[in-house]
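Observation: inputs received (chain + magnesium ion).
Thought: call the complex predictor directly.
Action: predict_structure
Action Input:
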Amino acid sequence: MLDENHHLIQCIMDYQSKGKTAECTQYQQILHRNLVYLATIADSNQNMQSLLPAPPTSNMSMGPGGMGPSGGHGPTNLNDNMTPGLPPTSMMQSQMSNGSSHAPMQQQSGQVQSAIPSASLSLPASSYGSSASASGYSHTAPSSQGSMIQGPGPGYGSSSSSSSTPSSSSSSSRSNLNMQSNQVSMMHQQSATPHYSSAQAGGQHYQGQQAMGMMGQGSQGSSMMSQRPMGSYRSSQQGSAQQYMGQDEFYGEQYGHTQSSSEPINQQYYPDGHGEYSYQQSSYGEQGYDRSFDESQHYYEGGNSQYSQQQSQYQQGSGQQQQFSQQQYSSQQGYSGQPQGYGPGQGGSSQYSQYQQGQSQQYGSYRSSQGGPGAQAQRPYAYEQANGRGDIIKQSLAFCTIISEVCQLNGAMLATLTRVKTPRWLSPDILLGPMLRQEVRRRNELWRRRVAGGFRDVSTSCTLCAKVRGNPSRTEKLSEKKLTRHFVDHRRVKLVAGSGGKGVCTFHSEPRKEWGGPDGGNGGDGGSIFIKADRYVKSLAQIVPVYRGEDGQPGGSKNCYGRKGNSTYISVPLGTVVKEQGEIVVDLSEHGQEYLAVYGGIGGKGNRFFLSNENRAPLTATPGMEGQERVLQLELRTMAHAGLVGFPNAGKSSLLRAISNARPAVAAYPFTTLNPHVGIVKYRDHEQVAVADIPGIIRGAHLNRGLGISFLRHIERCRFLLFVLDLSAPEPWIQLEHLRYELDQYEHGLSQRPQAIIANKMDLPEAQGKLETLKSLVTQRVIPLSALTGQNTEELILHLRELYDGYLQESSGEGKATRW
Ligand SMILES: Nc1nc2c(ncn2[C@@H]2O[C@H](COP(=O)(O)OP(=O)(O)OP(=O)(O)O)[C@@H](O)[C@H]2O)c(=O)[nH]1
Ligand SMILES: [Mg+2]
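Observation:
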């Protein structure tokens, strides 16, 4: 096993280094099974050691001579086995014990029993019927590997066909029935072929199979052969056969090189009554490729009276069993039921293996169902058989050590095995024995520390939520792209007000006052949703698609009214226009202005509300009303006193940076500014003038060229306009005409608002000559300046104040002057 596992580890590492994950996974599964097997053995030994005070009296010799031919079994045990009152342990003993001590029950039954090898498992050819006996059940085989018999794979094709032979049918059927220990069979699937033909004296495997078969019978409570319904029997066997074949093929591919079968094998069976037994068996059987260590066979079975019944039934119905077994073989194997079709040592083995698997499943169920009072009785005997358990434990520990060492060497392998261990094989509470638990836990702890150490360098905290370390004053400048994401000037929101709480129907309850009258309170009203203008909110980015108001609380007894739902306020920037289906509902242009968008539902009425002279005990209570629901569009129209309007690259953003603390992006390419930016120009008298930087406008913007005229709505709110012209352009006055045209296309008369013309880039030499031309062509005030150098920006600031003062005078009468 260790060699095999070594080989598996090497293969896994090789495949992993080559990046062959599929193969690696397969080998890991195989390795997993091996580990489970080892752990199971170790665990059972530990348990057995603790439970069984009696020291081992004798070891089960796996030598071929232990079981003679059919008649070779000692009669003494035979009697024990056949005793109806005896628990299965006795049978197990008979099967497992060597020499005369073990007398297989089959012998008692007669021919059938004679065919079955005893504990030593040497299966004489004669016992298995005519044809098969010579060759096939010569498979009596490898001393230690009765399991080989089971191997259904092609390697067993040569094994006995005795099962189909009528003469041997008794034995064959017997064998089939007994072939339950799927583990054993599975274990030696591959090695079976060569070993099977050659092995002679062994028969242990077969004995093991018998034992398991018997156990399986016992588990069913009646002999499977004679009493069991035909259909179910076939189906179960077929299912197992399919599984087995699949496994056989797999291992045949993977481990066709399996080692010698002549070495004895340790087989243990634990009737602990849990459903994992079948799993262990299957896994054990799958490991049939390699077994380098010799062990005794241990069978622990919780016996019951059913076993004896089964025995007797079996004896009685042996003839039927034979036929049944024949049919069964044919159906399972697909050999058309011709005994001669089986070559020597072929069909029989495969059939047996299949049958064993089927029984193993049954046995698992049996164990789970019973739990076995007879287990205690069997254990002493099993303890006697438990020679070599120390070796198993040592090997298991050694194997775990090897695994851990390999894992330490290979980090990737570590991760892989860690994943493997999680489900089963390293789970101490499932399969591993107590001796292994401590070791495994220790190594798991080491691995956990290593894995945790690997990630220790990485902070587990969220970097985005972490505090900004270093100098907070050196904040990174937000790019225009990031700023764009934070500016939203239109939203579509769904508002659902809270529903009213339901009224309740209760009656007053008081000692000595049977009829207290109704006291069910009304439900609270649902919360409404308001839209409120907030001067500190500059964008609609924080607006979410759906708002739901708070529901009112239901009423209570003792005339308690439910609490009303709190109102929800949605803060929006100044200048937000609320529209519904394209129609303006409200314009929130003042700080603190509120709009009740949706009303909360009215709370329901309690039965107290329905109290009247006609009805002194009303049972009526109404539910609360649903809250109002609306879908609104929020549109932000930037509220600024002045708006910078110009072609791209005219220097609008540069100018805003020059006269305010705003920091819009400036670059030498068009459409640098994608969203409006508002800068505040502060004066000594604490008056503030808001100036909005609008994205560039080109000719045809109203036709959606460039960025379109969607941003012109931000200019719509500006009280006066600042046309920024690039004096370095060939004909800057042409730009002015285009700008006015586009503004008029958006809103008629928009270009006629109070305005000033900013002749920018006056620091450039070509700008001086064009300035005079510009002044001659326009009637508005032209302010030459340089946003880059700050030249003559004071004139602009002063002019802004003049415009602002004029605006204040205009709006003083209305009292709606917007101040920042
Ligand atoms: N020489 C000179 N260059 C200027 C002046 N003002 C702006 N610029 C340059 O002109 C280029 C465009 O400036 P922006 O402020 O981005 O122009 P804009 O109107 O905001 O452009 P958009 O955002 O695309 O509409 C930049 O390279 C500025 O350095 C100026 O007064 N003199
Ligand atoms: Mg700009």
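Thought: report the result.
Final Answer: Residues 646, 648-654, 666-668, 670-673, 695-696, 760-761, 763-764, 786-788 surround guanosine-5'-triphosphate (ligand 1) (CB under 6 Å). Residues 66-327+339-386 form one domain.
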